[in-house]
Amino acid sequence: GEGPAVLAAFVDKYEPGELRDPERVLAALCAVTVCDPACGSGAYLLGMLHELLDLRQCLFATKGLDAKTMYERKLEIIENSLYGVDIDPFAVNIARLRLWLSLAVDYEGAQPEPLPNLDFKVEVGDSLTGPRPDERELIRTPMVEELCDLVRRHFSAHGEEKRSLRGRIDAVRERLAEHERPDRQDLRLIRPAQPSQGPSLPPGPADEEDPGFDWQVKFAEVFADTGHRTPDTGHRTPDTGHRTPDTGHRTPDTGHRTPDTGQRTRNGASARPIPRSTAARRTSTSTSTAARTSSSHRAA
């Protein structure tokens, strides 16, 4: 694979010149999925859209990969990589609007295409009260496959087809939730008993009828996807676990260290150790000199 320094230069400085396998890096960028569990008006989602877009544009400018328009790249990133949840419906609508505007400004042509449906990309829900997404693995069953296909088709559907797909998606989601979590009743948020003193809890969307945001059901295409997206077709290929070996030679560390004798030079650095014979001669000479000096003082 790519070394950490090479990837850091690419991600932080947009310098892909040292990448050994830029096609694989592009495939990894196209397979990234990002979710903001409290997206608000979508600032983080917009930031990630432009970050992924800049990295792909960098690969195209220097490596000639991903030869698509800015509009096409943005559309792919929104469809395959960005997800958001917020409990405030107004904030969710603003987040969708910002994604639409960011996409529309880069369309090149006389007649703009219909905007994609973001109903199942940025959703209303309480991300704190739902079941943990890592409690169990979502198996790609025929029901999950059907749901993923319906969501994919709904992204670009319009008119009567859009309304029909919406109804089918809601029905499959309900069946999947009952199948995957037969104990859903235990996942509902039970409001605590009110204390005898103090303010009461304000009414809100999270009550006994709200089981919270079920990540694996609402974003089934993410949790059931164990392959990688290729940049163009969205085809999934199994991950074999094989990694390209890093052939960069490293000098082995033998663990050998030069002993510190405690001696210091004038600038504070460690001095080389003095052999015992040399040290003994210096000590003897210093002693003799000191003795002669002492005798001269007494004679005086």
What order do the helices and strands come in, and which of them pair?
Blueprint: H1 4-13, H2 22-31, E1 34-36, H3 43-63, H4 70-80, E2 82-86, H5 89-104, E3 122-124, H6 142-155, H7 160-180, H8 215-218, H9 220-223, E4 228-229, E5 236-237, H10 276-299
Parallel strand pairs: 1-2, 2-3
Antiparallel strand pairs: 4-5
Helix pairs in contact: 3-4, 4-5, 6-7
Structure commentary:
The chain has 300 residues and is mainly alpha-helical. It has 10 helices and 5 strands. It has helices spanning 4-13, 22-31, 43-63, 70-80, 89-104, 142-155, 160-180, 215-218, 220-223, 276-299; strands spanning 34-36, 82-86, 122-124, 228-229, 236-237. The strands form 2 sheets. Strands 1-2-3 form a 3-stranded parallel sheet. Helix 5 links the parallel strand 2 (82-86) and strand 3. Helix 3 (43-63) packs across helix 4 and helix 4 runs antiparallel to helix 5. The relative contact order is 0.10.
Helical content class? 40-55%
Helix tally?
10
Number of strands: 5
N-C termini distance: 83 Å
- Strand residue content: 5-15%
Mean pLDDT: 74
Catalogue the unreliable spans. Answer: 185-208, 226-245, 258-300
The geometry reads as globular
Secondary structure class reads mainly alpha
Order of helices and strands: HHEHHEHEHHHHEEH
Largest sheet: 3 strands, parallel
Q: Which strand order do you get reading across the main beta sheet?
A: 1-2-3
Radius of gyration: 33 Å
